[in-house]
Queue: 3 jobs
Job 1
Amino acid sequence: MRIEKVHNVLQALHKDRIDTLTKEVLVRAFNDDGIFDLESVAEHMLKRIKKDIEIQKTEPHVIDFSALGKRTPQDVARSIIHVAPEVPFILDGVAFDPEDIRRFDGQALVFIPIVATDGSNRLQVFHDEIREVLARYFQMRQIGYLINPNDFPIPGVSNPPPGTPPGQPPQPGNTPVIVGCGGSTGIACGQPQPPPGPPPTHTEPNPPVTNGQVQMFEDADYSGNWFWLAKGYMWKDLTRVSRGGLFGGNWNDEISSLSSTDTSCIYCENINLGGSTLVLGPNKPIPHLSTYGWNDRISSVWNYG
């Protein structure tokens, strides 16, 4: 992960420490980052604005099947340290306890959440070479759909509203939104209104539901700041995606929950779709990525559709 000039300021402004933050501590953090006066602040602001404008011109990219199919280089894989999930996992036909995932440190793995016959959550895990199969699978779906959509339907897939740019929320008339905090590209952020009907009987919040787009959240239970990605696009490097504001940081290793969407999405722990991979099919919301050992671990995103 790249270290920005305002690293100490970002640490000082972290929400877990904001209640005890004083003016003196914040000024000291500015000074530690080489910012001593208003001119330095203005200079940093201009650089940040120009950087965000440039990112909006070049990101996100149209999905690249070849990038998805590449195996993680051995020198990169050796540095991988897996985070224990909260659920058991299955690898090579063998069921493992969650803490056993550390036995596979130094290897890139592919994780797919599944539901067992008893209704419990688990992880199906594959070795990194399965990425080539994944890339071919999605490419075959695309080719088949282009040749004859009636012969090769893609269940649950619908087009996003006309004119919706990649990385932007659906336009009015699709999913209603309650305006809240700022998003990755300066758009308003909030929670889509829940569908009509009786209140849920479970304690977890209803997942936001989107079509074509996927919504990613800073905190668990679909809360905190968030940003979007349209189907057919990928963010190759979340260090380049701003979380908004002068000192908002970026989205690298910041995602803690994922909305429900009708698209197939792939999340990778390294930039450029590298490292271990989390694969989700349509309508697979995750209120707690920590359940699968993926909290604050995502560095690139691939939304097939």
Job 2
Amino acid sequence: MTAQTLSTETVRAQSLHAKPKASKVLSQADLKLREKKLKKHVAAIHTDGQLSLLQRKLSNVLLLNAYDQLLTKPEHEIDEKTLCVMLGYDSNDRAPLKSALKALAAVQTEWDILDDDGGEIEWGVASLLSHAVLSKGRCRYGYAPTLAEKLYNPAIDASINMKVPRRFRSGNALALYENCYRFKNTGSTGWWDIQLFRRLLGIGDSDYYKSFKHLNAKIIKPVVKEINKSSDIKITPEFKKQGRSISEIRFVIEPNEQLPLMDIDDDDAVKGTSAYQRLITLGIAHKLAQQWIVTHGESYVTEKLDYAGQQRKQGKIRGSVSGFVNAAINKDYKTEVAAEKKAKQVSSAKEIAQLNAEKAQSAKIKREKKELTEKAGRAVSWLEAQDLSQKHSIMESFKKTLDKDYLVADLAKHGLASPLIAGRFADYIFDNHSAQN
């Protein structure tokens, strides 16, 4: 089997790419689970990184759910709908969940425990999940005892806050972030052999990335950019050469001063909104209310609350109002007035976009026409500078490129001043006479 990473990201109810569609309101216990920090054994961090982003997220949620009882229970379980909410997709679609669980249960996980200088202390391999079962709305799963002991050991760990990994859109960025985070207090990862670095990101078997040019352009630069933009640390790569080749890499690590601008947990600001107070009155948990307001904005949440109030007065809500609000927010319910207003805005936006596109196209045509005229002028000027016999030779050669009778006729009638001929002649001169390049 292909060696895979054992990765343990902490995940909130929001997906990395989309708003969760599931309408389940999480229980207090589930919310508490979602807010925990996950202790990540370095064996879980320093591994090959070939898990997909969904598999990586799923492994994180499962470990987070099981962590406190890893050594006392052979099997753990979590509500299936809650799991889907935390992964960020509709709980009615079980295919992605089944596929990800199957992958986690099938792969072998190879790990390296590294010291603060990047040296290897221990190597090991185990199946990531010993089993996984979906039954009666619950997901049951387990870990091999050896792996459970390794995961639970809190003596060597890095604690990653759940708010950060959910921002990543790239599995490579998340893998490198996890490998760098435990060194944030020492300021550097220490030197890694370039082959080990490729393994950590799950590209050790790729011939394409054996070329440092490709590795740097397609992996290192974009991954570093994403981490520095989206996380609580900033990393800077440094390289060491052996001869003319890059042989080692390390990352200098420092706090990201932009984190306060990205942090969504501004309790005082959120609690001061009327939308928050209305949600709490309906029995919505603090963290869920906070998440809705930060994710969608106060005006959006207020619109849904007002809509729920209207539907309640008209007796159109069956079940709890809080459940209706949850669905209204996640599925973007709209009143008829709001829908009409939105339609007008969309129509207006399309008209503006079409007008801008037409203006841009017109400007492009004018620019290209001007460039063609200038190019044709330079070509004719160059021709006029040649002697008579050379002019004749050039024109005869150019005529042979005209594959249509009407073009030959147009050249005979209007010469190089013809709009049909000028561009073709300019291209001919610039393509065939180096003096013009």
Job 3
Amino acid sequence: MNGQGAAPGGGDGGSSADGSSADGSSVDSSSSYFTYAFGLAAGALSAFALLRLAAHAQSVLVLVALSAFFAVSLNPIVTALTAQRRVPMPRWTAVLVVGVGVLALVAGFLAVIVPPVEREVTALLHQIPHLLNEAQDRSTWLGKMEAKYHVFAKIESSLSSKGLGANALTGVVGAGKYVLDMLTSTLAVVALTIYLLAGLPNVVNAVFRTVPASRRVRARAIGDEILTQVGRYMLGSALNASIAGLATFVWTAILGIPYPAALGLLVALLDMVPVIGSTIGGAIVTLVALSHSMPVALATLAFYVAFRLTEDYVLLPKVMRHAVNVPPIVTVVAVLIGGALMGIIGALLAIPTAAAFKLVAQQALVPRLDRR
């Protein structure tokens, strides 16, 4: 009887054990579902918070990206200075030399651009009394126009308006704020570029430490190639822009177009923007040439059309031979997308970014797909 009693007891114990295990598995399953859902919700909230943060800090992120781009672009010069043996330089000395050189170029640009603008504004202010006297003389063309349309009277009435005065004051304050913001952003980009340029090897090593050890060597090779191509692209683009600026200076100086040095620097800067930069620069110089005479403007237009063809089919293939090799259609699309996202800065960063994606696809994505 003890055996028979033990049997049911044992059966009850087994059933209890099975039931508890079943209940336990059910609890574990519910707990795992809850943990998964909680992790998914936390990830979604984190992604949303990061997107909001990126949206609010977009201007700062653009400045950081531009500084990193300039640091990578100037890194080949710093590396060449540290590698040469004639005057041995540690990296910080090479960075200082490059930084002083860049600041000297910016100061030279301002020294060339500001005086012509100041002279034009001063000449316009001195010309205002003469224009007012001509407007009162009915025998002059300006006087006849004033008598017919009363332009100066309307301008004087508008300027005496209280509302326009307040709007003008607001516009002046807004323009001052814009200039201050632009100056602050420029100084921030210069400072960040110098810091990133000085610590670029450490930054690159820290980034590659986040890659798993099994893939680190391959990732390092691709990353080094991207940095090399970006540096070569910027040096080639700077050389091509220098040629465009020098050609503009020579052409405008020969034809007597005003401000040849300023126009040359402006074209050189605009030529750094791919696809559209040289066209905009040529259009600006042609409009300035129009103030000289119509034949000179037409000759300038023909000069820039010929120079653009020479640049696209002769200069760029030679200068960029060892730099990036991006198909033309990809270049145009990348510039359009970059310009739509970040304006001129996006257009400037478009081709190196497209080259980086192309290199990653060729070195990592395509071989992996071929193995499948």
